[in-house]
Amino acid sequence: MAAAAWTDPSAGSVSNEVSAGRVLLQFRAGRMNWDGGRVTADARKGRVRLARTHEGLFLFQWMERDAEQVEENLIVFPGEATWRRVSECTTGRVYLLEFHTSDKRLFFWMQEPRVERDVLWSRRVNNLLEGRDVNDGVEALSAMAAAVARPQPHRGAAGATVSVQDLQQALQGLGHRLADTASTATTVGTPATEESIVGGEGSGGVESSRQPSPAPTPSLSDVLQLDMHLEQALQQEAVQQALQPFLQPLLPDGHDVRSVLRSPQFRQQMDALSEALLESGPEETAEMIRAFDIGQQGGGGEQRNGLELFLEALVRRARHADEESRGDAHADELGAGKERQRRPHNSG
Amino acid sequence: MEDEESAGWCTLESDPGLFTGLVADLGVRDVEVNEVVTLGDDVEEWLQLSRPIYGLIFLFKHDARLAQPSRPPLAPDATPPGLFFARQTIHNACATQALLAVLLNCREAAEFRIAVGERLRRFWEFAAELDIESRGFAIGNDEHIRAVHNAFAPEKGFALEQTEARRRRARREDAFHYISYVPYGGHVYELDGLSGGPVDLGPSAAADTDTPCRLEPWLEVALQAIRQRIGRADGSEMRFSLQVVSRDPVPELQRRAQAGDTAAQQQLAPHLSKRERWERENALRRANLVPLGVRLLVALADAGAIEPLVARARERERQRIEHARRKP
Known about the structure:
The complex is a heterodimer of chains A (about 350) and B (about 325).
Chain A: H1 2-7, E1 17-18, E2 21-34, E3 39-41, E4 46-53, E5 58-64, E6 70-76, E7 81-85, E8 94-99, E9 105-110, H2 118-129, H3 138-148, H4 164-184, H5 220-223, H6 228-235, H7 237-250, H8 257-262, H9 264-278, H10 282-291, H11 306-329
Antiparallel strand pairs in A: 1-2, 2-3, 2-4, 2-9, 4-5, 5-6, 7-8, 8-9
Chain B: H1 16-25, E1 31-36, H2 43-47, E2 53-61, H3 64-67, H4 94-105, H5 117-127, H6 132-141, H7 143-150, H8 164-173, E3 176-184, E4 187-191, E5 199-203, H9 217-231, E6 240-247, H10 250-258, H11 262-286, H12 290-302, H13 306-326
Antiparallel strand pairs in B: 1-6, 2-3, 2-6, 3-4, 4-5
Helix pairs in contact in B: 1-11, 10-11
GO biological process, one term (chain B): protein deubiquitination
Protein name (chain B): Ubiquitin carboxyl-terminal hydrolase
GO molecular function, one term (chain B): cysteine-type deubiquitinase activity
């Protein structure tokens, strides 16, 4: 099939063909350089291309956007590499191509204009890397992306491409953390690789994430069971303010939050989401957490189910918000977050 | 990758409010669906339903004993002309298909005539020419009918890959068997899309029952067949439901109420509040509530309220598991 494609004279534009075969996937992304301690972005506009040679070899390539000269050209065997988002970098959209068979690691930053579609590109890349059909599961993911890509009034212009300056700034922090985690990695005898970059133990997971959780994982519908405690929480001004901007478009006609929470339909749908998470691997879960804009997944996800990771991401976000709010109040104080102190509840 | 059995059809709840909305969205006017809890032994319950009753839909958790047809199905050349029967080829379409079996067979019969609307009429004209198997595919491939059906379930906002395990579980959970009962040309027919053809239950007036007829003769025949079917379960626990498709009483009551009929005004009120409730429930069914749920979780996290809620949910789950363990 590949041979037919590349010898087809009607294939037209050169960018649709590789000298050696057929383009399977192509998207805009810049490359990054990692020197073992610090990641720096290459500011050039670029593209990532996945192709198959007519001998059947699978190629992962990077080149400048308008150039044909391939700067990075790797032969990848099925299951040999994974494409994943670097969750440490919260502002930039940094991805890592990681080989299981060697130390080779390549960093990229997404330059596609629509940030909410990153998750779809990511899925496609991994589909190809793992030998699946390029669009396997993409439709469902796309529906999810559409569902969550609602206005987010509390954020800035979501969806805008991150500037190189922003990215560099974010990466400086990332570089430090990479160096820190690498030097403090506890695994004896393993060279200080960036094992811990993506989801390593030292990356600030909550305490409970160190070990498989002994407590059973409840369904999200259970967390949102409308009892006295949730009722109290809903009456907090902070909660009401956080909900208010997007409540109306998300509420079905003739309903308020409480009538939705009480409905069997809500319970069913949250149970279905919980079940989907339960059966998700760490990678899929990380994508969901990201698509829902919750924050980041903690480390060591291999031992725990996706629902547990999802709940942990929520708790981590809560603690982060807590620290931030106290950080705002005492701007110069150091060591925020040492003691766990809840923000005073507003009984309003 | 499309699951062949569902072929793009969502599973639906068996609910009278949903069925009533579905019928209206198919373009059929003045038809209501109600669930009854007795099989005719509580005559009062049945007499409260508006008339005429167009058909019954009996559904039960799939069970091999119960699934057997009441009598051998009719061969194609023995089937009365104009009786609509389609083989069920799409698993998830069963509810819509059972409704169509009632609606399309009432489209012209003098006493039961209902306005099925332009779209269903055209579908009927097209499908009438086909054999029973092809009719099933015609329903499955009808964009309009499928869109109306699917509108009662939210788009999958978060679906991950359909794993084989997930598919198998879904199949098991939704294995409800739907059978329609309709009067047609003086006989009563049992229409089961999983069966090889329609079953003739005999003339409308010949119910084999000791008690005198208190309901319409055709209903007695149909209910008798349903009771016999349930009898095969030997009293073992089973889940079933009976839905009655009948004329919507609201337009008539509204007309009379507007003309100053106080009795009609009083009768109308509960009907209208039932409709309002159904509409609210349908709005919930149609909505993708996951974004709201996730936003709520995030808002609770940002306000510092999530941890105790997660802890409580964990505790409840732990107790539930313990409780389940203690039970033999």
